[in-house]
Amino acid sequence: MKRVLFSGVLTLAFLAGLLYCSPYLAMHHICSATLEEDTATLAAHVDQRQLRASLNLQLQSLFSAPGVASDVKPDVIEPLVDTMLLPEGMIALVKLNDRYEKPLSKVSDISGRQRNTRPDYVLHYMSWNSVVAQRAHSKSHIGELTLTRDGLWGWKLTSVALPRSLLTDA
Q1: If you placed Cys at 26, which of 69, 73, 146, 155 could pair as Cys (CB 3.0 to 4.6 Å)?
Q2: Checking DSSP bridges between strand 145-150 and strand 121-127, what pairing results, if any?
């Protein structure tokens, strides 16, 4: 009886740990696919519909901000989102933080070799179904990735935080 109870508790603890670690595993797959520029693997971890809606909303607020040319039409946003959702565009979105802020993990040591080419992310649970991944040494929210639960174990990329200066930096 004690052996069965012990096995049940051990199994339950293992499943709880696996459930907690599942977004970390998904983020590992996303980072690996980005570094290897494996668009098929990256696309498998992206919820196109939710990412499209998020990018559309962010671009609408960027285009309506003061200081942006008033002759820019809202119908420019849809082709821009379509370009961002191309395989190469998704890789660029995940690497967005690299352009605006070089993380400490890219700093080379005295010998000139890079210490770590893989970016370090810190994950924060926002709710049971939502996790935000941010660069470990980042000072901004640029390139923050939002993952949303897909089923019990799976996670999908649903949002990437665009910088407010995106239109002026192009």
Answers
A1: 155
A2: unpaired
- What is d(CA 95, CA 89) in angstroms, rounded to the nearest whole number? 10
What b/e string do you get for 88-113 counting C-beta neighbours within 10 Å, with b at 16 or more? ebbbbbbebbeeebebeeeeeeeeee
The residue whose two tokens read 């069965």 is 4
Maximum CA extent, the chain: 76
Integer Cα distance of 13 and 19 in angstroms:
10
Which run of H or of E encompasses 71? Answer: none
Report d(CA 133, CA 30) in Å as an integer.
11
Q: For residue 6, is it left (φ>0), alpha (ψ between -120 and 50) or beta?
A: alpha
pLDDT in tens, 105-148: 444 445 555 544 566 788 999 999 999 998 877 677 777 899 99
For residue 53, the Cα-to-chain-centroid distance in whole angstroms is 15
Residues 6 or more apart whose Cβ sits within 8 Å of residue 117? 35, 105, 106
**What predicted TM-score, i.e. pTM, was given to this entire model?**
0.76
